[in-house]
Design a protein that fits this description.
There is one protein chain. By secondary structure, the protein is mainly α. The protein has one domain. The protein has 13 helices and 3 strands. The N terminus is likely disordered.
Length: 384
């Protein structure tokens, strides 16, 4: 009977984590419609097009969240290498098959009929599972360069080469930062990590100057007002949106920059539209909700019942945190322009689905903490 109680899965949901996520998704659906209605009406003849799609993505994401909440996180261990292989196949397929879909000068999507998704997002998830599994498995041997650092850096290198060919330099930087952070938390020697950072500086510099458009982006980042009609156009209009919003905002649906001034208002720059229509108050609310989610994720990581669960939670939380900080930094002119969605808010099926399933996995790890405490308590009572 005790073993049945110990193995029984806790079916409750962490409301403290679920509520801010659903609240952000709801805001996202509303803001996707507000930001995209004019564009959708002009291009596709229906102002509700992106609204309908985002609502469908949210429903699919919610199903994914529920499934991952009840899928034991420990079962990802035997799926580690199949997930890595699948991610690599997807990345290769973009470049060498007709399934690759190009948009905006980059081939970053796979296209299956009417469905398309971004493999680099899936590769990020596969990398998190691999690092959690590998770092836990190697234990004390992580201090050795050939065991703790080199294999993980090699997998990162393979994924990085595939993604940089799309080209998507920003996603490579995110994946590298995530790998470095998980290795640091997992126990890889700091000497190896610091040395790798120093070695990456000239490589990153080479890629920055290897393409003219990257140089222009960097110059426009340093002084966007000097290039208001070219590379600085997006940042200038994004800052204008925040400035127009003031304290309380212009009101929902009353934003001006989304009317064919600010490019990609419903995807990369949806945070700018929120700032314009909801003002500083709305921006602060979004930041508080994100901070709450990230703190909950780190709390789950700290209390996880095993190393694999802790590293999974750290990786999933860090991936969301990096995405949030980079997107907000770009829209506020604090970082160079990078096409990256804002979790739970921006239009996009791949990002929304993977972020919501990540929340489901975090909930499952959190529920395992409760199950472990209950099992220990029952064992203690039986001994007494």
């Amino acid at each position: 009977m005790n073993s049945d109680k110990q193995s029984a899965n806790n079916v409750s949901y962490d409301i403290g984590l679920l509520f801010p996520v659903l609240f952000l998704v709801g805001i996202g659906i509303v803001m996707v419609y507000s930001a995209s209605s004019a564009v959708a009406l002009k291009k596709f003849g229906s102002d509700y097009l992106f609204l309908k799609r985002q609502a469908l993505f949210a429903l699919i994401g919610l199903v994914g969240l529920v499934i991952c909440r009840h899928f034991p996180y420990r079962w990802y261990r035997p799926l580690t290498y199949p997930l890595l292989a699948l991610a690599l196949i997807f990345l290769i397929a973009i470049q060498f098959t007709d399934l690759g879909l190009a948009a905006g000068g980059s081939a970053r999507w796979l296209h299956f009929g009417k469905l398309s998704f971004q493999p680099s997002e899936f590769a990020r998830f596969a990398m998190i599972v691999f690092l959690a599994y590998s770092l836990e498995k190697k234990g004390e041997k992580l201090k050795e360069f050939s065991v703790g650092f080199l294999p993980h850096a090699a997998v990162l290198g393979v994924f990085g080469v595939c993604i940089i060919r799309q080209p998507d330099f920003g996603s490579v930087l995110i994946l590298a930062a995530l790998t470095w952070l998980m290795m640091f938390v997992g126990g890889v020697r700091c000497l190896h990590l610091i040395t790798s950072l120093i070695a990456m500086v000239p490589i990153a510099y080479f890629f920055l100057i290897s393409e003219e458009y990257r140089i222009r982006r960097l110059l426009s980042y340093l002084n966007p007002w000097q290039y208001p009609a070219d590379e600085g156009y997006q940042i200038v209009h994004s800052l204008m949106a925040f400035g127009t919003g003031g304290l309380w905002g212009a009101g929902i649906g009353k934003g001006y920059q989304k009317l064919f001034y600010l490019p990609e208002p419903h995807t990369d720059f949806i945070f700018s539209i929120i700032g314009e229509e909801f003002g500083l108050v709305g921006v602060l609310l979004i930041i508080v909700l994100y901070a709450w989610i990230l703190l909950k994720g780190l709390k789950i990581a700290r209390k996880a019942p095993d190393t694999f669960g802790a590293l999974m939670a750290v990786g999933l939380t860090s991936a969301m945190g990096l995405q949030i900080c980079i997107n907000m930094g770009v829209t506020l002119g604090l970082l160079p322009t990078k096409g990256l969605t804002l979790p739970f808010l921006s239009y996009g099926g791949t990002s929304l689905l993977l972020n919501m399933t990540s929340i489901g996995i975090l909930m499952n790890i959190g529920a395992s903490i409760t199950d472990t405490k209950t099992a220990k308590k029952i064992s203690y009572l039986n001994v007494q």
